[in-house]
What does this fold into?
Amino acid sequence: MGNWFDREAAVEGEQAVVDYMASLARAATLETPRLPDANVLWVKAQILRHWDEERKAQAPLDLMEPVQVFAGLAAAAVLLAWSLPSLLRAFSILRG
It folds into this structure.
């Protein structure tokens, strides 16, 4: 481990920081992103508005889908219970 009070080590460390900062300053800077054209923003806004309208129109249908499934299964169960005596009578006639 280095000596904390060695002046030459401190100077070498400072020089390393200076060199690093100089190389960082010389590095190519990234281009700032170009803002999109107003027409592009308008089209994106129209698409988002359209998607929002579709989502709002689809919401009641999404809510009713489980209700429809349950109602269909309940109706099938009622019809089966209602026709079960006739089915059992027909099955007993077929068996002999």
In short: The radius of gyration is 39 Å.
